Amino acid sequence: MTDVLIIGAGVVGGLLARELSLYELSVALVEKEDDVAMGATRANSAIVHAGFDAKEGSLKALLNVKGSEMMEQTAKELGVPYKRNGSIVVGFSEEDRAHLEELLARGVKNGVKGLAILDREELLKVEPGIGDTVTCALYAPTGAIVCPYDLAISAIGCAMDNGAELYVDFPVERIEAIDGGYRVYSGERVLEARTVINCAGVYADKIAAMVGDESFTVFARRGEYMLLDKECGGVCRTTVFRTPTKMGKGILVSPTVDGNLLLGPTAENIDDKGDTKTTPAGLASVARSANEQVKGIPGGKSITSFAGLRAVGSTGDFIINSPRAGFYNVAGIESPGLSASPAIATYVADMLRRDGVTLTPKAGATRVRESMHAFRHMTVEQKNEVIRRDPSYAKIVCRCEGVTEGEILAAIRTNPRPRDLDGVKRRTRAQMGRCQGGFCSPTVVELLAREMGVPFEAVTKSGGGSYINVGRTKGADAQ
After folding, report:
1. pLDDT tens-digit profile of 130-185?
2. CA–CA distance from 470 to each of 431, 453, 465 (Å)?
């Protein structure tokens, strides 16, 4: 019987698994998809919020501010890019300014440092590209950016280095209370655990209901995004928000840690918890709003668009509780969930400790993981030494992002191992450039097929039935 079983391998479940793997506990992490970081973690704004928006006294406020303070060190330990670029919330009217004053007061109560209201002249010194109709802004110098799926993948890899087990393609279908714990079913597969922690995102209410807890619901809020080419990354320095509404923080314009420019998201409540389509109307609203906030955004430089789903809980706050002995909910983790994730991990660990779970530090366990992007940041001399030891690092596969065959092979061989094109993409950035995999995808497929020992045409884009190739057109085995 496993000591702790975590349902959901997103950034929250991943950082919690990493935290608990530091102790003398057996830890298992289950995920319904074929890879980790496939839900909200895969497609969100990638912002480390300063913490001024959440209502004072709420779990959101407490864990946002603490998580924001922890994130830089967490990212450093896990080898994940992080940049404290600051954020601004722009206003266009006196009504907006009044709202920004409220946010300032709330942020001060929440313990956010360095907040200030800037008039237009002061604002131009911070963000020269601000839109012509912007009159004022709330400035938060502690705002930052990070890569959410990179963070989750590295955290889960670190947990696995410490002995945690990962089960993918494991949609939880039933949970049964047994003597001393729970039995968790997924088809023919069954796991038993003394403690179960529900980090299932938009499906967290369904998981809770399996143990008789129907005290909350979770619905999906879809947000559509546009990602622009790296040549647009310098359009703004900070993350630029609009004055928020009841539907969220609104459209943002932000550089990414990898040098692109991100626009979005929209906010639309939907019934289908798997609907991640984009729409012409949604993307048009993203472009329109973004151009009001920041000047000079080249609309023709979009290289891709995508949509993510936020898990919005019915309580208005994070739902972190224990409705019955040995079962914990970590639900309704919408924005600022990414920002709060390191703090959520320690908060839940403290809950377990208070409830009698013994947390004895594990000898040899580590908080540190080598960066998956180490090669690109090496000096020429260091790269030459790596290539001398392994010539595969001398072959560029993805020309847009400068990713080598050696980096792709290392990713395929490192836990948590990718099994499809998008898995390699999230780990290495191969296929993330201007051509979106137009040139490098065939080589990545070849490497995956060889490493997994499967036919070339068996490799998928993103699991399931997303086959890329149906057969060969040349050679002895051509169809």
Report:
1. 999 999 999 999 999 999 999 999 999 999 999 999 999 999 999 999 999 999 99
2. 21, 17, 11
Q: Is 283:194 a contact under the CB 8 Å cutoff?
A: no
- Among 49, 99, 373, 377, the active-site one is 49
Length of the chain: 479
Q: Cis omega (within 30 of 0) on the bond before 298?
A: no
Tell me: the pLDDT tens digits for 20-55? 999 999 999 999 999 999 999 999 999 999 999 999
- CA dihedral of residues 323, 329, 335, 337 (deg, nearest 10): 130
Q: Where are the domains of the chain?
A: 83-144+219-311, 375-458
pLDDT tens across 401-456, in order?
999 999 999 999 999 999 999 999 999 999 999 999 999 999 999 999 999 999 99
- CATH 3.30.9.10 corresponds to the domain 83-144+219-311: yes
- CATH fold of 375-458 reads Arc Repressor Mutant, subunit A (1.10.10)
Residue type, 457: E
Residue 65 main-chain phi, psi, to 5 deg = -65, -45
The DSSP letter of residue 456 is G
Could you give the 3-state DSSP secondary structure of residue 452?
A: helix
| Cβ atoms 162, 15 nearer than 8 A | no
Query: Rounded to whole angstroms, how far apart are CA atoms 127 and 150?
Result: 28
- Whether the Cβ atoms of residue 14 and residue 74 lie closer than 8 Å to each other: no
* Distance of alpha carbon 134 from alpha carbon 118, whole angstroms: 11
Is the alpha carbon torsion for 343, 344, 349, 353 positive or negative? positive
C-alpha–C-alpha distance, residues 428 and 372, integer Å: 7
> What is the CA 272 to chain-centroid distance, rounded?
21
d(CA 279, CA 285) in angstroms, rounded, equals: 10
Buried b (16+ CB within 10 A) or exposed e, 161-194: bbebebbbbbebeebebeeebbebbbeeeebbbb
**Joined tokens for residue 271:** 């019934």
Cα separation, 268 vs 222, in Å, equals 5
**How far is C-alpha 161 from the chain's CA centre?**
20
Q: Which two structure tokens, joined as six digits, stand for 138?
A: 């709330």
Q: Please say whether the beta carbons of 436 and 443 come within 8 A.
A: no
Catalytic-residue membership of 377? no
Residue showing tokens 């546009």: 226
Write down the pTM of the prediction.
Answer: 0.96
CA-wise closest residue to 330 among 49, 3, 63: 63
Beta bridge partners of 361: 23
- 363: phi then psi, degrees, rounded to nearest 5: -60, 130
Pairing between β-strand 327-331 and β-strand 189-198 as defined by DSSP bridges: parallel
